[in-house]
Amino acid sequence: MIKTKPWTGGTDEEYETQHFGFGAQRLKIAVRQMVEQKITNGVKGMESYLQESLDLNETDKVTLTKSCDKLIRLYCERAGPSLGVIDEEIERMLKIPQNVLLPEDEVQIEQTTDSEFETLKEEVASLRRRIERGALMEALLSAEEEELASLEKVCETAKKDMEAIDLLCKSADNGDSLKVVQSETQFLCASASFIKKQNNLFDQ
């Protein structure tokens, strides 16, 4: 009911909030809300007391409620000029002079010279080059890691082949296997001689 300007923020409000924990705009809104709440609670309390203490019919109760609501609006409207004075006092107390710096802003007192700025630029450029070299080194290491992984696969395959050859050699060294191979070889040789003799007989 009390006319209140909406909070808009701004540089002054932000600076006041950093310094005091709240700004002038928020404090003025809070004061208006508090005053309106006090007026409403007081009038509604009076309304409840009258309804309890007086023997009123329903029509009188409705009339009393409307009258109390009207009284609340009237009080809120009449509070406007006084709240305007309070607003001015709040702004006067919370306004921070232009020459006052907050502790966290004191570092800005010392301005950076041109030479210092150039030094900072060189440091930034140096850091950028180091980052680029690091990225290149990482790429080279990744490629080398992939190549080593491929070599490991080749070595693993060669190892398996060597194991197979060793197993074959061990089998060849076995006496029974050797006898079987010799027997098969002799059988083939004998068969070849028999076939050759038969061919000679037919030729005669």
Automatic annotation (TrEMBL):
Subcellular location: Chromosome, Centromere, Kinetochore
Keywords assigned: Cell cycle, Cell division, Centromere, Chromosome, Coiled coil, Kinetochore, Mitosis
Entry superkingdom: Eukaryota
UniProt GO cellular component terms: MIS12/MIND type complex; nucleus
Pfam (any one): Mis12
Biological-process GO terms, alphabetical: cell division; kinetochore assembly; mitotic sister chromatid segregation
Principal location listed in the UniProt entry: nucleus
Stored PANTHER family: PROTEIN MIS12 HOMOLOG
Family classification: Belongs to the mis12 family.
Protein name stated in the entry: Protein MIS12 homolog
Organism field: Mythimna separata
